[in-house]
Every structure is written in C-alpha cells, then in structure tokens.
Amino acid sequence: MYSESYGAVFFGLSAFMVRVETDVGSGLPCFEMSGYLTNEVKEAKERVKVAIKNSGYDLRPQRIVINYSPADLRKQGTGLDLPTAMGVLAANSMAEIHHFNKTVFIGELGFDGSLREVRGCLPCLMKARMEGFKNAVVPVGNSEECNFVKGLNIYPVKDLKEAVLLMSLKSLPEPIKNITHEKEHDLSSLEDFNDIKGQTDVKKATLVAAAGMHNILYIGSPGSGKSMFAKRIPSIMPPLSYEEQMELTKIYSIAGKLKEEKGLINKRPFRSPGQNITESALLGGGSSPDPGEITLASKGVLFLDELTQYKMHIIEALRQPLEDKRITVSRNRYSITYPADFMLVGAVNPCKCGFYPDRLRCHCSDLDIERYMGRISGPMLDRFDIRIHTAPVSFSDMFTTYPASGNAGNSPDDHTDMQVMTSTEMREKVCVAHEIQQKRFKEHGHRFNSEMTEGEIKEFCKLKQNELHFLEAVFERFHLTARGCKKILKTARTAADLDLSEDIKKKHIAMAVNFRNDGRIF
Questions:
Q1: Which residues contact 101 (CB under 8 A, 6 or more apart)?
Q2: Which long-range contacts (C-beta less than 8 Å, at least 24 apart) are formed by 127-130?
Q3: Residues 217, 222, 227, 229: is their CA dihedral positive or negative?
Q4: pLDDT of residue 281
Q5: Sign of the torsion angle spanned by Cα atoms 189, 191, 194, 195
Q6: Which pLDDT score is estimated for 211?
Q7: Fewer Cβ neighbours under 10 Å: the N or C end of the chain?
C-alpha cells in the first residue's frame, strides 16, 4: 500500500515542507530511503523500526520504500522521524489517515517510541502555516516555542502511540491555546548602571552608543570597568518588539539554544565569545550550516573582550558584516545569508601590561606598544564610532554616596545627572532617541543613525556655517578619513537627538570628536 505524510526541514534560516511518500509491499525485506538525505535522516530507519515495535505495533518483514520530496532539497536533522513512522504505519493500515493531508508532523523518535524535541521547530511551523496546513503534531518539548504560531492548531504529544491515537480521531480535540501577545521585557536579571561609580564620560559615551546603535570600543587598564560597562548595555536598550522577538526566537530555535528560554526570547542578546573562537563559529557555517555568534547577537550586543587577543583574521572577518548587517556564508555545496544586525562592543588594554600611558607602571617600549595595538587594523578600528578611555576609578568615587537623581535632565552633558542615573532612566532617554530615529528613517528603510547612507547623512546631518568650519578644523587636525568624518557626523546626530535638538550644534560635534579620539594611543 501507499501513503503520504508531511514533515518539514530547515536550511539556513528558511524552512521547507517535505512530502514523505511511503510504499510497502511483498518482496525481499528492506527499508530503502531516497531524496537527497544527510546521515541523520538515513539513520532514521533504525530508530523508526525499533520505535514502532516498542510502541506495540507488529511490523511484519516487508519491502519498505520511502521517498522524501522534493528530491533536490537537502534534508537534514532528525525532525523527519515522526512523519516517516506515521507513513509506515498508515501504509500498513495500522494508523488511520484522517487529517494527514492537513497535518505536519515534526519530531525525533527514541527507541522506546518517545518523541524528543528538535531544532528549528518554530520556522518549520511558520512555513507550514504559510503553505496552508491546519494542524501540527510536535514533541511536548517544543510546545513552548510553538505557542506563538498563529493560525495553526498545535498538538504536543509525548510519544508515537499518542500521535497515532490523535490521528485516529475523526474530529481532532481542542489544540493548545496560542499566545498572541508579546512577552514583557525582562530586566530583572540585568545589572544596573547605577552600580558604577564615577566614569561619567564613559557612561555618557555608552548612552550615546546605545541611543544610535553605534559600535563602541573601551580602552583602559585592567580593572577600570570595561567589562562592567559592556555587560550593562542591554539594560538600557529598548524592549524588543513582537516581530523582533519572533525573529530572534526563530534564530535560536534553529541553533538549538531555546532550552533555557520559555517561549519567545524577550531579552536582547549579549554574546561574548572567547578568544579561541573559530571563524565558522563566529560567522556561521560548518558542514551542517548553523548561525554564528554574530547572528545570535542580532538585535543585541556582541562583546569582544581583550580584542587584541583574537586572531587577526577573525577580527578582520567582521568588517563586511558590520557594514552590511548581514553575512553570506558560501561553501562548496551551499550559500546562506544570515542576519548580523548587532552592536559591536570591544574592550582592549592599551599595551601588553595594560598600564600605558602611566610610565610609572608601564615599561613597554614604543615598539612593543605598536606591535600590540597593531593586531587591530586601521580599517577595523575605523568601524568603531566611539572609542573611549576608561580611567581607573578614584577611591573617593568608590565610596561617595550620590543623592538620587530624581529628575535627570535631557542633555547627556550634565555630569551630575550622569553620576546618579540608573539604567531605567538611561533607557527612557534611549527610547526617546530611537523614536526620533524611527520617524526620521520611516521612508528610508533604516532604524538608527549608525545605519545612515552617504545621501542620508547629507539630508539629516546638515550643518550651519560655524559647525561646518569647526568640523573642517577637526578633519585637518586629526587627519580623518572620509569614513571617520561621516562616523563623527552620525554620532553627533545621535547626541543631538538625546538633547532633543533638531540641529547638530558645535557641542554635539565636539562630543562626537572627543568620543572618537579619546583613544589617542592608537
């Protein structure tokens, strides 16, 4: 007999429907599978046969031939175990075939017939809904992420036998209830900027960076607070929208990193890979393509601590994704484009010992310092809109108790406000700046000042005569490149937005120049 069942697979960040065609008949007993299958799918025949037997079904020796269509689509993963088993049982008349043409099956089978969670369940169900399927049978372990797929009846089951009993019903029961609202922004586990004493300039620079999604590099001696600032950036970033939550959850589902999450991801990512990371782990790819760290950091922060300790080709590989906000991974058998919409945050010591320019403690020669800092190329350094020096905190700042801010002003120039400002207050300012930018770029397809094109810089960063002369003097004084000058204008535009100013003033340009050239050791 012949039967059809339906499953789904993902490749990159896209999902595809798969028709599982099963034919059983007389002849020499065998279990043949075709359709451009990876090893995980080919090995399913042993899992399926044992799972069927241990689920209480007597599968007689027979010739079983299964084709996975379309045949030119590469099938990977273990999510096709369940549709394969359902197809074999239906072809043997051991399972009713009600609803088969409207139902997608996803899940990995254990030898005992249990159904185990799989990667990429969310994008597969979203594709099934687009293709007109009405029902989905998924493992219980994937039910949390599936709750948010609207327009599809979700039926979590714990084993193969339960799936068969479900399909034998002429009228399906009530599915699990879809959750149609976005999750609240969870800030309870994030550290607060109010914990940081002193460092008002660094705090101000971080506020500007988050407001315009500018890449920022912290330069300072060990213990000066570089990592403290970086780890607190997500606490001042605006909440994720429902669409952003869905996009991130889809990425993490494909990467198999949803085990610790409950449903949609509602926190902006903070990824901090170690210095021994490989290029494929950072950018994505591998024999079975997986999203890399720059994709997992989308909508959030990618933090590279001790930047000079990374291999130089690893750092250089970030140049194109930082400009394009996406990465194309090309291999012999595939080419995949992943999103890379992240804010890059780096931290670096000024020299090998970490204490330059304090010559009382630093004994590195000029050549040693040049070699150490030379691990970051000029073009890569140019990608950082803000480069700020983190000076050691004084004893008095550490043990001074500041009064509550109460009503912090709008301007980021107010040092008193910056000293006492909490993450909540900083986030309010960032949200206002983001709203201004979203209105500004509504017709341009961008969201943040850091993404402005050359034409948009001319349109939205117009300068009056005094400001133009000041920028010209800065250009000549610091021997800026064209890119460097544009980066200063983008940062100045963000500073003006935080100041609720329609025009970019001289103080905003001065602030941007100070932030970009505070790392004078370079």
A1: 4, 6
A2: 127/8, 127/14, 127/15, 127/16, 127/17, 128/6, 128/8, 128/17, 128/104, 128/152
A3: negative
A4: 92
A5: positive
A6: 96
A7: N
Q: For the chain, what's the residue count?
A: 522
Orientation of helix 81-91 relative to helix 44-54, angle to 10°: 60
Considering the domain architecture, whether residues 474 and 365 belong to the same structural domain is answered as: yes
Task: Say if residue 301 is in the same domain as residue 440.
Answer: yes
- The residue written with tokens 């193969």 in the block is 160
Check if the beta carbon of residue 223 is closer than 8 Å to that of residue 196. Answer: no
Contacts 24+ apart (CB under 8 A), 240-243: 240/182, 240/185, 240/265, 240/266, 240/267, 240/268, 240/299, 241/182, 242/181, 242/182
268 and 149 co-located in one domain: no
**pLDDT at residue number 520:** 45
Q: Is 259 left (phi over 0), alpha (psi -120 to 50) or beta?
A: alpha
- Which of the residues in the chain have pLDDT under 50? 407-413, 416, 519-522
Q: Which two tokens stand for residue 223?
A: 């213990």
Tens-digit pLDDT profile for residues 437-484: 999 998 888 889 999 999 999 999 999 999 999 999 999 988 888 888
Same domain, 78 and 216: no
Residue 285 resides in a domain: yes
> Whole-angstrom Cα distance, residue 411 to residue 422?
15
**Tokens, residue 164:** 């068969």
Say how many Å lie between the first and final Cα of the chain, rounded: 74
State the residue range of the domain holding 49.
Answer: 2-167
pLDDT value at position 262? 61
Number of domains in the chain: 2
Rg of the Cα trace of the chain?
28
What whole-number distance in Å separates Cα of residue 410 and Cα of residue 130?
A: 46
Phi/psi region, residue 186 (left: phi>0; alpha: psi -120 to 50; beta: rest), is: beta
In this structure, what token pair is assigned to residue 134? Answer: 């009405």
Final residue belonging to a domain, choices 106, 132, 167: 167
Residue 345 counted as domain residue? yes
> Buried (b) or exposed (e) across 287-312, using 16+ Cβ within 10 A?
eebbbbbbbbbbbbbbbbbbbbebee
* Residue 387 contacts residue 517 (beta carbons within 8 Å): yes
